[in-house]
Specification:
With about 130 residues, the chain is mainly α. The protein has six helices and no strands.
């Protein structure tokens, strides 16, 4: 693995593992809030049980993070996982009018954190297309 790949994979991978680990055993009220927020981007999530959703998100973050930090997982596969996950987060960003300014692209104050997932999408795309 080249140092550039290690950098592109290591930092987001560690972040995703930490984020996923933090969602394990989430209390019911927090799980419900997370599910409702996710449903703004993917309406089908509203039908899910809150605890099931929180476990799904935690597991997904842990799996993508583990794929990123595991050297024998191909960079394209790890990048595709990161790109897919961040695209889901960006869907919530673009479908929630409170997250963007009037132009529908630039983040509002409430959308700054969610808009930062564009960095993860860019890293995922770089891993997928890199030779």
């Amino acid at each position: 693995m080249r140092i550039s790949n290690a950098i592109l994979r290591g930092i987001p991978g560690a972040y995703m593992i930490q984020s996923g680990y933090g969602k394990l055993g989430m209390d019911p009220q927090a799980a419900e809030g997370l599910k409702q927020f996710a449903a703004t981007g993917v309406p089908q999530f509203a039908e899910w049980d809150s605890q099931t959703f929180a476990t799904f998100i935690a597991g997904t973050e842990l799996a993508v993070g583990a794929a990123l930090v595991t050297p024998f997982v191909s960079k394209r596969l790890a990048g595709a996982g990161l790109l897919a996950f961040s695209a889901g987060l960006l869907t919530m960003y673009f479908r929630n009018p409170e997250m963007t300014r009037e132009d529908g692209i630039r983040p509002s104050e409430q959308g700054i954190q969610l808009s930062m997932n564009s960095f993860l999408a860019a890293i995922g795309a770089a891993l997928v297309v890199q030779k």
